[in-house]
Amino acid sequence: MLLTLDLNDARPLHEQVAGAIRRAIGDGSCLPGDRLPPARDLAQALGINPNTVLRALRDLRDEGLLEFRRGRGVSVAGPASEQVAGRALLVQRARELLEEARRYGYGRDDLITILEELP
């Protein structure tokens, strides 16, 4: 699993890690049942604290995207959660869009208006 973080991104690191994993699940790089590398290995590869990675993994577990199994590690949740995975990916992309809109001086309501104007 190849994850990268943008050190210029203002979002907290755990949100960036969670977003990268959401994207990997959403685009099919990680399939239901796939095991993720241990948090310690991910943290080392990203150059961040293992607790930061664990926080991201717990957030994704709470969203229903990941399953924690004692002795088996962390894996992508089964096919029943495809709808959850799709929604989580859309939420992540909406957050990124809102952040981008803020950089251009638009607020949440402005973005909603723009979306409502789309065909």
TrEMBL record:
Q: Which InterPro entries match?
A: Tscrpt_reg_HTH_GntR, WH-like_DNA-bd_sf, WH_DNA-bd_sf
Task: Please give the Gene3D superfamilies that the UniProt record associates with this protein.
Answer: Winged helix-like DNA-binding domain superfamily/Winged helix DNA-binding domain (1.10.10.10)
Answer yes or no on keyword Isomerase: no
Q: Which residues cross the membrane?
A: none
Pfam assignment, any one: GntR
> Any idea which UniProt keywords this protein has?
DNA-binding, Transcription, Transcription regulation
Keyword Transcription regulation assigned: yes
| Record domain HTH gntR-type: where | 11-79
- Name-wise, this protein is HTH-type transcriptional repressor YtrA
The species is: Nonomuraea coxensis DSM 45129
Species lineage, top-down?
Bacteria, Bacillati, Actinomycetota, Actinomycetes, Streptosporangiales
Gene this protein is translated from:
ytrA1
